[in-house]
Structure formats: structure tokens, C-alpha cells
Amino acid sequence: MKQIIGAALIAVTAAICASGALAQSTTLAQVKNRGILLCGSGTGLAGFGIPDQQGNWAGMDVDVCRAVASAIFNDPNKVKFIPLSAKDRFTSLQSGEVDLLSRTTTWTISRDTSLGLNFAGVNYYDGQGFMVRKKLGVDSVLKLAGASICTQQGTTTELNLADYFRANKIKYEVVAFASNQETVKAYEAGRCDAFTTDASGLYAERLTLSNPDDHMVLPEIISKEPLGPVVRHGDDVWLDIVKWSLFAMVNAEELGVTKANADEMLKSENPEIKRLVGTEGKFGEPMGLTNDWALRIIKHVGNYGESFERNVGSGSLLKIARGQNALWTKGGLQYAPPIR
Amino acid sequence: MSTTSAEIKPGKASLLYDPKIRGYVYQFALLAVVGFLIWSAASNAIENLRAQKIASGFGFWHNAAGFDINQKLIPFSASGSTYGQAFWVGLLNTLLVASIGIVLATFLGFFVGVARLSSNWIVSKLAMIYVEVIRNLPLLLQLFFWYNAVLKPLPNPRQSIELPAGFLLNNRGLYVPDPQFGPGGNLIIWALLIGLVATFVFRSWARKQQAATGKQYPIGLVALGLIIVLPLLVYFATGRPITFVYPELAGFNLRGGIQIFPEFVALLVGLTTYTAGFIAEVVRAGILAVSKGQTEAANALGLRAGPTLKLVVIPQAMRVIIPPLTSNYLNLTKNSSLAVAIGYPDLVQVFTGTVLNQTGQAVEVVAITMAVYLTISLVTSFFMNIYNKRMALVER
Description:
Structural class of chain A: alpha/beta
Oligomer: heterodimer
Number of strands of chain A: 14
CATH class of the largest domain in chain B: Mainly Alpha
CATH topology of the largest domain in chain A: D-Maltodextrin-Binding Protein, domain 2
Largest sheet of chain A: 5 strands, mixed
Helix content of chain B: 55-70%
Structural class of chain B: alpha+beta
Radius of gyration of chain B: 28 Å
CATH class of the largest domain in chain A: Alpha Beta
Number of strands of chain B: 8
Number of helices of chain A: 12
Strand content of chain B: 5-15%
Shape of chain A: globular
CATH architecture of the largest domain in chain A: 3-Layer(aba) Sandwich
Distance between the termini of chain B: 27 Å
Radius of gyration of chain A: 22 Å
Number of domains of chain B: 2
Order of helices and strands of chain A: HHEEEHEHEHEEEEHEHEHEEEHHHH
CATH topology of the largest domain in chain B: MetI-like fold
Largest sheet of chain B: 4 strands, antiparallel
Number of domains of chain A: 2
CATH superfamily of the largest domain in chain B: MetI-like
CATH architecture of the largest domain in chain B: Orthogonal Bundle
Order of helices and strands of chain B: HHHHEEEEHHEEEEHHHHH
């Protein structure tokens, strides 16, 4: 008995001291000590984050994690991807289980201010859409009166759905599932007339259905869904690292620096390119990185446009057009602050 | 062991060596350690929440929820309902599936448990196969099975299967005609209540008569007359005041009638069959615990197999059955939280799922949920303990 109490006391003391020590070191120091970045990713969404046939994670959201790992370790593979469902993701990030959350997460004021989180930019401008069976003969969301609609719980989708149908005074039945896979399965089994999620997700999930051609995406986009990587409150340097890893990719596309020509660009005389690839100025050091941090990202992951085309654009099965995600110079919304 | 101050001679032993005082010191030390552990965990959590600027407190309870729930026993809508109301919707859904599940699992479990002891080879082997299959597969897997088994073969609402009495079945659920009570409709409910009470009174009177005189009365027939015929007579006497709203196709889904959701059916069937497998074994153990001499004595008195089981064996077996039966009831209630996997809006799905995620207040939401399950379990145990006391052997 005495020994048990003694052991318990030691364990308790150790636990309290350990938690105190953990709280003090920075996220960057923890990641460097660990030698690997812990990235909260989705549970498998084509184009954004899904393991390929060799088991390597690939996707737009995955590339953000790989960019951060490249900037820190000069190795895009020093990332451990931890699949999180929509309803578990914030708790995992808050409790420190992951360093960075990059899984089609919509930036909203309540998440930014009351969950203890910070959004580090927008890597995909999305909006919520609806998928239905073609044989229903429906060509608009407004004609879905009385329909059953499958959605994933704990998402902005669930709230937008309620808002939209309430605003348009349409009755409907919601069937909410904890995971995306369950939601799609229930839709496919006929439990619901429509399936709703972000439009990009609809295109990705449609390909996983047994007969993709029997299903169609309705034209309405009922919400703004700016998706981006998320970090915890309270570590501004870490926020800067994630934010600028994403900005570096966008700036690289704007300046025409690609995975292929990155090394040549070291000889460029363009001052903007020189600052990006680190031949001029010391922009990595204040973040605790090397000055070629952006060059590392471009060499390993590529610029934003390359990541887009490879994962969701012309180089992928999804074939999504750039649309709002084109650079601001080409009529889109992707705009990164300058590196100077 | 009790020591009074008179027995302790001053100077005989130092307080340090008094086993009783030592015992108190150890107990106190342990209590202090546990208290410190809880206090430090709580203060650590609060400090960290504050440091990360994560909202805390229970203010979210009255905030607008903004999402919808399909199965609700109390009014709830995205416009105007709060997170607190979402909690009640989820809790009632949990209690609904748990209470119906407990009743059904008890009946099925008793049936299978008795069947397994049957002298009929096929019946006992079928019961054995049922118990072994059900008990040895994970419940979550069984829920997925039932959900898909319920959902897959059913047609879409436009090709609903028409059942007798206006019932409709499709992959959105079972649609039951919704009774509407017209003037005088209340009388029928009253008649039913009076019938139930009268049956109860008659039954206890009949039992006393039997104990006193040995004369038996037809309890079953009288119960049938009071509970079914009486309300029916009132129904016709008042001019058939109950009308039904029948479900009919409107757009994509059926409108009107009461909808029983497939998620509810799948969860109920899964929980019932699973728990019944365990209850069957509890019942079998209880019956086997009754000495064979009791059955032989009943047979010697001329009782047939049915009354022997009902009047001699089961009442004695109940003493062994009730305590493990209670824990099976608690398991069923707690297992209902697996509803989250098949989209049934129970407490865990609605409250620790959607509400937790929309508010981000994990600590508060999880604490409330744990307190609720603890309360449900303690209340169930409390009533089962009262029942157990009544059934226990009265020792003289």
C-alpha cells in the first residue's frame, strides 16, 4: 500500500512538472526536437488529403504540411499525417496532439476567436454545394422541398444548410453523420435525396461513387468557404511560419518560380525573386528558419499553381478549374503579401 | 475492535503506534493526494484554456444553435432553439432508445435463456447459436450491419411498400398513421387507464382469493375485456372520434403520419439483440442455480412444466438474475452512445458531436455528458436495487 501511494505521488509530481515544461517551449522547438511535423489531415478526401496507392499522402492540404516541413527540415517527408474527423479536429489541435491542422477547414469568426485557434491564410476558396441523383429530375436546390439531406456533423456545412433552407422557407430533413465516409455511404444507399458539402468535396466524392454519371452537382453555391491551415493561439512565430509557407507558394507562382526552374532562379537579377529564394535579405532568420526557406518549399512542393494543377486541377481526376483560386493578376482571389 | 477512552491507559502506548490513529493518518494522506490531483488537474485546465483564449463557462447553453435535428421529441428548429434545447433533444432520444431497448431486450433475453434450457434439441441449439454469435461480435459491427440491412433492401419513397392499416415502409423509415383526437377522444384514453387500473386491482384480488380459497379466476380474459374491449366500446359509443392522418407522397418524401427513422430502428434492433444475448445467459445461470429438487417437488405436486417454471423456478431464479441484469441494463444505456456511428441523434451525437464542435467547449460539454450518463446509471441502479430487495430471500 505504501509503495503504491509513493509511486502514485511520484507519477503525479512528474506529470505536473512535465505539463509545466511543455507549455513553455515553442512549437517550432518541439517540432525540431521531435524531428517530424505532426499534421492533422482529413480522413481521406481526393485532391485535398488522401494516401495514394503507395501510401504517400497527397493533396492541396497535404502540400501545406509538406511546405512547412520543407521550410523547417528541407525534407517534405518529415511529416506524420494524423487523420481527424471534422468533429475531432479542433480538440486535437487545442490539446497539442497535432502542430498544424490542414484539412479543408473553413475560416469563421467563432473558430478564430473563441476556439483558441488562428487561421494562417486561405489555400482554397470554396463554397457549399449539393449533389443529387440525376433521375430525381431536380435542377436547383430550391426544388429540394421536403427532401432528406445527408451532411457531416460539426461542420459549417451543417449550419449553412439550416440557414439556407430557413431563409428560403423550404422544409427538409437533415441526417447528420460523424464521418464523411458514413455520410457518402448513406447517400449512396438512398437514405438521402441530396448530399451536401463544399463543392470541391462534392466533385471528389462523386468520383468515389459506384456510378458517378448517375449523380450531378446542382449549380447553386450557398456559402463562402475559405479553407485554410489552422494553428493554436499563443505561438505567433509558429503562425508566421505556416502563414508565410503558404504565401511563399503563392508568391512563387506569381513570380514564375517553379519546382523545375528553382535552382536557375538563384541566378535571377529580379530583386523580388532574389528575396524569395533567399539570395538577398535575411527573411528566414526572424522565424527561426534558414534564409532559403522559401526555395526549399518550391523545390520540394512547387508553387501554388503547381500544387493546384497536380492535386485538383488538370493534372488530376477532379479537373477543377482555377476559378476563384486563380492569382489576383488573373482575376482570382489568391493574393499574397510581398516578401520584403 | 471498538476501543473507548476508558480502555486506553495513559502512557501505555504512544499515539504514533496506535493502529487506529495511524489508519486515519493514511486515509487522510490518501484523501489529500486525491484532492490535490483533482485540484491541480482542474486549475491546470482552466489556466491553459485561459492562456489559449479558449472560451469557457456554461454561457453557450443559451446561445442559438443554428442546426437542425431530424428526430426530436420536443420542438426544435434551427431558428431560435438553443444549445441547451439541443441537449434535451439528444437526452430524450437516448432515453427513448434505451428504455424501449431495455424492455425488448428483457423479453427476448428471457425467451432465449429459457429456450436454451429447453429439452427440444433444435430449440436449445438455435438459442445457443444465437447467444454465441451475438455475444462474440463487436456491437459497433452489428450496428453497421443492421443499419445497412435496414436501409439497403428498402425502396425509395416513391416506391414505398404499402403495409396494412395505412403503414408505409421505405428507406426513409416506417410511416405510421398519426392519430388525431376529436371531441370525446379523451374519454377513450380515460377508459384505457381505468381498464389498466381495474385489471391491476382485479389481479391482486384474484391472487388473494386463490391463496385463501384455492379458487382460480380467469385473469387473462378479464384483462382483455378491461384493457381492449372497454376502450373499444367507448370509442364506438362516442361516435368514433379518432381520425388518422395518413402519410402520403409529397415531393421527395412522405408527408403526414409519424415517421420512425431507420437510424432509430437499426440502433434499437442492434442494442436489443446484443443485450438479449447477455441477458439470456444471465437467465440461464439463474435457472440453473435453482436446485433440481425444486422442479422435482413441483412435479410431485402435479404441476405441469409451464406453471413449474413460472411459479417455482423463475421466482427463485430472479434472486440470482437481478444483479447481473441491472448491469446489462446499464450497458445497454451506455452502448446507445454508439448511435453516433449510424447517425442517430442521441445525446453523444448531438451534444458531444455537433454542440461540442460548434462551441469548441470540450471540457464543459464532455463533463455534462459524463454527469448525465452517471445520473442515468445511478437512477437505474437505484430502482433495480429496490426491486432486488423486494425479491430477495426474506431471512428470519
